[in-house]
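Today's session is about reading a structure prediction critically. Students often jump straight to the picture, but the first step is always the sequence itself: look for stretches that repeat, for charged clusters, for runs of hydrophobic residues. Only then move on to the predicted structure, which in these notes is written as discrete structure tokens rather than atom positions. Here is the chain we will use throughout the hour.
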Amino acid sequence: MKKQEISIVDDEPINLMILKKLLSPSFLIRAYKSGSDLLQAVEKGIKPDLILMDIMMPGMDGYETLAKLRKNPDNHGIPVIYISALDSLVDEEKGFSLGAVDYITKPFRLGIVLARVNAHLELKQARDRLKNQNEWLEAEVKRRMVENQLIQDTTLNVFAELVETRDNDTANHVLRTQNYVRIIAKRLQKNKTDINCLDDDDIERIVKAAPLHDIGKIGIPDAILLKPGKLSAEEYEIMKTHCKIGGNAIRLAINKTLSVNETKNEEGEITALFFLEEAEKIMNYHHERWDGKGYPEELTGDEIPISARIMALADVFDALTTVRPYKKAWNMETVVTYILEQKGLQFDPNVVEAFEKEIDAFAQILNHYKPIYADGK
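Below is the predicted structure for this chain, in token form.
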């Protein structure tokens, strides 16, 4: 077993000799004649488990040496015991105020020196074990959080892709719309409008929820979902129900989870479900219109959650720029013109302004995640 290391700092050779003789049978001893010698050794990486240090030394005294040692946070864990002929309460208080853990007066009583050295080394070992354990626990918690996040994200993508497999366009729709949502949200954050004040957590939650926006289409019959022509009025009404189908499914899942899980934060909600609540808003309201002519609840303006307003534009942009069973893809110029014309009508004016500043970014995403169709074209 490796010996614990003790550094002794004293300008008197006789004191160094006495302490070294006492401690060397049990510990690795390094002796220094000055505070500067100790500091140089520590800077080179020689970190003792304990320091025994005289106060009255020529040049740099023990107080100054300890003050300089403690300037580096990495050295805060090294216990320092003062050994000194100074025995006033003022001297002791000054030493403790600088961070010393003990104070032994000269002449030495060797039994006391050995007992205090052992006591403080045991305390340091306990602190080190606790620190290592805490670091391990923190690393383990972080690892498990990353692992759980990966599982969570993968599960969400599975749900999203299940929806896409029932449509002609595959998962690239999810990737594109998710990126469009991120671009708009980031631009709104830069614009710092009072109504649309989004922080990084808001954006991450909205982006994570975005792929679930059309999960309610699982409940729509294929004859309607994949119909190559225009839907009849009756079929359109059925198609519109996908918003509530998805939103209700998420709300049911959230309520069931809350009913069986008692681990809640101070606000009474499980933090991990926040993004699902955002997903519920997006599912329910991404077909609402700024002018109140959307569905399912004909909300107007700011009644529509900001995440749904962002998703509305992203979803329409993707629908217009890609082939769907009922239409051909529009060219970029026509799509941009349409969206700008719908400012204050179909779309939130702030969201349209954000889009207008990021048109090139949208084009890059569309080009990077090209549509992949079932027929391979």
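Discussion point for the tutorial: The chain has two domains: 5-134, 165-368.
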